[in-house]
Amino acid sequence: MDGVAPYHEVIDKPLKNRLFLTVSFPICVVVALKFPKGRCIIIWHKELHDTGVKKGKPMHEYSLTKQLVQILCDTATANGAKRVNCAHIVIGKNTAIIPESVQLYYDMIAKGTVAEGATLHMRIIEPEMHCQTCGKNFIRPRFSFACPVCGALGRPTEIGNEYYIERVELET
Questions:
Q1: Angle at 99 between CA 55 and CA 49, to 5 degrees
Q2: How many CB atoms are located within 10 Å of the residue 97 CB?
Q3: Which of 4, 106, 132, 159 gives a 20 to 30 Å CA spacing to 85?
Q4: Alpha carbons 150 and 133: distance in angstroms, whole number
């Protein structure tokens, strides 16, 4: 079969720093973080089939965004609105939700609905720790769990685990 790439061909292309795009044409496309000693973390994976039908394994933002669009559409319908103008979303950093992915999926999923074209305002919440010694909450310093006030080890709190709709603006 001339002109057809073999299924085992793998091409690694550096995108940024340790981020690599791996193409194993025509089987799958993988975006991964590569680390020393050959370790990597796959952050996106999509399988391609000969039929031209794409079957993917989207990141968790897809299902969360799908629910977000459904809630916005239901809210608009329940309030007799013509469309959703904007939605204010709160995302905690501990959720590992990537705002850019939410926006990308939102634009695709909301197409043809009353939520299409709505602006998403995303507020990011830094995770906080709690020091049981001095009673203070603090944002964890990089590479440490120590309280910046007294030096004791802090414990995780629920702050930074948020994902919710704070406010919706509708056009009636």
A1: 10
A2: 20
A3: 159
A4: 8
CATH number of the domain encompassing residue 145: 3.30.2320.80
pTM above 0.70, yes or no: no
Whether residues 92 and 167 fall in one domain:
yes
Tens of pLDDT, residues 38-69:
444 444 444 433 333 344 445 678 889 999 99
- Any domain includes 5: no
In tens, the pLDDT along 92-108 reads 998 889 999 999 999 99
Specify the amino acid at residue 104: L
Q: For 87, how many CA atoms within 13 A lie in the half-sphere containing its CB?
A: 27
| 148, 69: one domain | yes
132 and 53 housed in the same domain: no
